[in-house]
Amino acid sequence: MEMSRRRVLGTVGAAGAAGLMIGAAGGAGISASVSDGGSASGGAVPLTAVGATEVMFHGKHQAGITTPLQARGHLVAFDLVPGAGRKEAAALLRRWSATAGALMAGKPSTDDTGIALDAGPSSLTVTFGFGRTFFDRTGLAARRPVQLDPLPAFSSDALDPKRSEGDLWVQIGADDALVAFHALRALQKDAAGAARVRWQMNGFNRSAGATARPMTARNLMGQVDGTGNPKPSDPDFDRRIFVPQGATGAQDWMAGGSYAVVRRIRMLLDDWEKLPLEKQEKVIGRRKADGAPLTGGTETTELDLDRIGPDGKTVIPDNAHSRISAPEQNGGAAMLRRPFSFHDGIGPDGTPDAGLLFVCWQADPLRGFVPVQRKLDRGDALSPFIRHEASGLFAVPGGAAQGEYVGQRLLES
């Protein structure tokens, strides 16, 4: 009988059932985890709803894209070591997929360190992607998608190349910090001899259950962040976010996959917090208290971009962030934003090194991220209060079927 990572776990009780319902409301592929273990006295010891929630590893798409935001995250880029090529990359992805599948199910990894021994899956997700340079180093340049062409330079960029791009990219998310670190450590150990860490970034969101009801997350500026995201229930969601399943040609291996743009965005919080509330709201174009447009309604009310105020100006300013980034202002361009906040301490000048680990998903970054960012770059009222310090673009293939590893259709074609 296969033992779960949590050795002392019986059936999921009332709290676990609540976790199942919450997960089902947030996205597909989520369930309550049940162990076959028991306590030393024979009684069942249920996990809480947070610990019991499991996200499926195998599926049409990789986990961590439409999965509800998790409380803790790690973003890591790896470069293949000198001499490593396609064979070594395939072996690494096979190891990584096996480890991710076990940990996401709440089971121990090979040579498990015991860091998360007492925890359940805690909504752990592990997502794998390939950077532009990966294809040269594995002899697969002919199968590199045009969507991985380098992103254009933007005037707000102050990019550190040492913390940008990479051959391989891994996104880890969980609702428990130890579970997330456990996965990070296991994958790092798996990479030994094949790839080494290029950069790592650690992030967080509000913990599950911290609010009376599920709410859109806030960023470190205190703004509700993610209101205008496309929703899986939208009829055109898959077309905007995922590469079509019927994709053919050299990039057929990306069917069911997506493209991730990753940006470390420093927030100049001292400057932002000097603005009075009214000016902050005009910069964003939404009320800070509830995320509703300045034109009224609730968070989900459509922006009334044509409404004129008593002063003869548009109520939502022409350079407001929400106006410039709205899909209707960008030919329908849309992306699924799924970020983490970060705080890496206080700098020598006394300012916080904090902001947003921006991660957005789209079927084509040339039609999603790029046109929107170009427009923001030309006149976003938020630009004076942020700085883009690192950047990456990664092709994230579709999910692995049972018995497959992520990327197999590319590496074994």
UniProtKB/TrEMBL annotation:
EC number, as in UniProt: 1.11.1.-
Cofactor(s) recorded in Swiss-Prot or TrEMBL: heme b
Comment on bound cofactor: Binds 1 heme b (iron(II)-protoporphyrin IX) group non-covalently per subunit.
Dyp-type peroxidase N-terminal domain sequence ranges: 62-205
EC top class, as a word: oxidoreductase
Classification via SUPFAM superfamilies: Dimeric alpha+beta barrel (SSF54909)
Domain of life: Bacteria
Residue span, Dyp-type peroxidase C-terminal domain: 216-400
Compartments (UniProt record): Cell envelope
Alphabetic keyword roster: Heme, Iron, Lyase, Metal-binding, Oxidoreductase, Peroxidase, Signal
InterPro entries in the cross-refs: Dimeric_a/b-barrel, Dyp_perox_C, Dyp_perox_N, Dyp_peroxidase, EfeB/EfeN, TAT_signal
One Pfam family, short name: Dyp_perox_N
Residue ranges, annotated region (Disordered): 288-309
Catalytic activity: heme b + 2 H(+) = protoporphyrin IX + Fe(2+)
Family: Belongs to the DyP-type peroxidase family.
Function field: Involved in the recovery of exogenous heme iron. Extracts iron from heme while preserving the protoporphyrin ring intact.
Name of the protein described by the UniProt record: Deferrochelatase
